[in-house]
Amino acid sequence: MTAVPDQRTDAAESSAAEQAAAEDLRALFGQSIAVFAALAGPTHVVEAANPAFLATVGEDRARVGVPVAELLPELTGQGFIALLDEVYRTGEPYTGRDARVVLGSGPHAREAFFDFTYEPRRDATGAVTGIRVIGVETTQVKHAQRLMAEHRAMLEQIARQAPLTEVLDGMARCIENLAPQEVLVSVLLADPDGRHLRHGAAPSLPGFYNEAIDGIATGEGVGSCGTAAHRREPVVVIDIVTDPFWADFRELAGRAGLAACWSTPILARDGSLLGTFAMYHRTPRVPQDSDLALSRVFAGTAALAIERHHVEEAKTAAEARAAAAHDELARAVRAERQLRAEAERRAAAAAELADRMRAAAANQAARPHPEHCQLGGAQGCPAPARIKVADSWGDSAWGCDDHVEEAILNVRSVFIASEELGGLAAYLDR
């Protein structure tokens, strides 16, 4: 007699095997960072899930025994529920790489990326009874890739000498976009004396706040940034309301909706202060290691941009000084040429006057005291001869006041003479 297989026994054994497999999966993924969930039926009810899956769902709504669409309603409009339906209908597994998903809604929404697999669960007959979801969050890797790309773009901006304000503003916006939680970035620039901080970039902070802190002093207890600049080391304030560093700025921060501020000094290669890099938060927050690493990376990038800006400013100033010196030298050369031309003109005039003196002296013997000025040159001078002048060679002449003054100023060794040429005495109307 042939034994007939007991289908109930087979089904029980199959069910026991499936349960054992499920237990193995739960044991395997229970403490893993990979997300795991076992879904049942066409509505994809969450039968079991590991802590990583529930953490992804969110502490306030994490539970089992409900359909995925009810647990995570935001997935419906993003195509993930349709994919589950397809796998359940066809029995074909599906694998996604770097799939983008927005978890949560409103101000609590966050962007995440996953590598995941939907695997069909089958009963003893091979019919699909549900789906296993296995995934690994790649958000940090994706953000790191984006961070590297943005960082490389900023380095290229610096290399092509983009304006400092453009580089710093782009850096601030990049960090604000990459951060998994809301953050508001500020960069303050140190005055040359290192005693005050000026606004550099803060695209998301209120204008009144930026105006109020523009020019704050560096010093112990002057908020997060003033203290970080003074200490030359990071300063983490996790709760502005209670921190003594913010006593003078607490009301201002409250109006701006700021609750935490972590500030990192931006230092040059020689250790001098270039500014500060700050990350503000709307709620009190303790920084994670990744937050501090991000601050260090971008503080270093900001230092590179600011130092490059200072070098370009110094180069421009030096070029301006060189151009000014060149212009001044050109003006000096032109002035020297003008003076030389004037000296040559005066020398020619002096030679001409000397000739007049000699000509007048020749006529002096016949007419000792002429009626008209003898120093008027070829055109003559009708003015009365009032003053007698002589030179060191013994020549003398009578001239009017103007021509005598011109002779004395322009001809060396000419002096006012007595009739006997015996001294520097003035004889009028002789």
Question: Nutshell version of this structure?
Answer:
The chain is 44% helix and 21% strand. The protein has 430 residues and is an alpha+beta fold. Helix 5 (139-159) runs parallel beside helix 10 (289-364).
Task: Write structural notes for this entry.
Residues 150-316 form the GAF domain. This protein has 430 residues and is α+β, with helices and mostly antiparallel strands. The protein has three domains: 18-137, PAS domain (Beta-Lactamase); 143-310, Beta-Lactamase (2-Layer Sandwich); 344-416, no CATH class. It has helices at 7-29, 51-57, 68-71, 80-90, 139-159, 164-178, 207-213, 223-231, 250-256, 289-364, 401-410, and strands spanning 35-40, 45-49, 94-103, 110-122, 128-137, 184-190, 196-201, 216-217, 235-237, 260-267, 273-281, 387-390, 396-399, 415-416. A six-stranded antiparallel sheet has the order 8-7-6-11-10-9. A hairpin with a 5-residue loop joins strand 6 (184-190) and strand 7. Helix 5 packs antiparallel against helix 6 (164-178) and helix 6 (164-178) runs antiparallel to helix 10. The longest helix is centred in the C-terminal third of the chain and has 76 residues, at 289-364. It is rod-shaped. Mean pLDDT is 81; it is low at 1-5, 24-32 and 421-430.
Topology record:
Blueprint: H1 7-29, E1 35-40, E2 45-49, H2 51-57, H3 68-71, H4 80-90, E3 94-103, E4 110-122, E5 128-137, H5 139-159, H6 164-178, E6 184-190, E7 196-201, H7 207-213, E8 216-217, H8 223-231, E9 235-237, H9 250-256, E10 260-267, E11 273-281, H10 289-364, E12 387-390, E13 396-399, H11 401-410, E14 415-416
Antiparallel strand pairs: 1-2, 1-5, 3-4, 4-5, 6-7, 6-11, 7-8, 9-10, 10-11, 12-13, 12-14
Helix pairs in contact: 5-6, 5-10, 6-10
